[in-house]
Amino acid sequence: FYDIICIPAIHRKRKSALPTMAPTTTPLLLLYFLTIANILPSASPSSATSYGVDVSFPIHHNGAISTNYAWLPHNVDPVNNPVTFAAHAGMPVQPLPGRTEFYEEFMRGCREHYGTEAYVNCDMQEVERVCTGFEQVINMKNFTANGFHKMKVPPKLYERILHFWNTNRDHMTPEPDSDAYINFWGISTRVYLT
After folding, report:
1. I need a labelling partner for 54 at 20 to 30 A (CA). Which of 104, 119, 127, 128 fits?
2. Residue among 138, 160, 135 at smallest CA distance from 11
3. How far apart are CA 57 and CA 99, in angstroms?
4. Do residues 25 and 192 make contact, with C-beta atoms less than 8 angstroms apart?
5. CA distance 47 to 174
6. Which pLDDT tens digits describe the chain residue by residue (194 residues)?
7. Considering the entire predicted model, what is its pTM?
8. Contact criterion met (CB below 8 Å) for 147 and 76
């Protein structure tokens, strides 16, 4: 793992390829999240795997995913097997297979898509993504004691959102190139813009 220096957002210049979304886009986005929340089953505490940052995707250390695998001797039997590789000391245990390869494929796809502009549009945006993760936490305001509140969508609101979706879903266009936060080069996404 290595640390990166985050430059405060006010000192970074950033171009955005996304057009400004009209207020009518908000119900579509809300519909997506509400539908997913209503469809997906909640994970029970007994079935959930708990792990820290930089395990499934780089979060605190740019380009680094934990290689401290659960099957390594110092994780299986720490009493009789001390950590032998210094980098594993303090690194979260990696219970997920293939995450480094997944991340490398993600970045490879970005670099192939952008070609000669890959450094700015992929690698530098990855640094910015990690920095943004630190900045957003500082600026977040909780509106409830937990920071969130789960509830059912009121039926009338859900009907309005569903109506908006059914009216506009056939009028969506391919989403313009965005930044490297999402893999639009690998999966075509569509958006309704007014």
Report:
1. 119
2. 135
3. 7
4. yes
5. 37
6. 444 555 554 444 444 433 333 444 444 444 444 443 444 344 444 445 677 788 999 988 888 899 999 999 999 999 999 888 888 888 889 999 899 999 999 999 999 999 999 988 899 999 888 888 888 888 888 888 887 888 999 999 999 999 999 999 898 888 877 777 778 888 888 888 77
7. 0.64
8. no
* CA neighbours closer than 13 Å in the CB half-sphere of residue 55: 16
CB contact set of 133 (below 8 Å; sequence gap of 6+): 59, 60
Residue 120, both tokens: 């700015």
The amino acid at 64:
A
Cβ burial 140-150 (10 Å sphere, 16+ → b, else e): eeeeeeeeeee
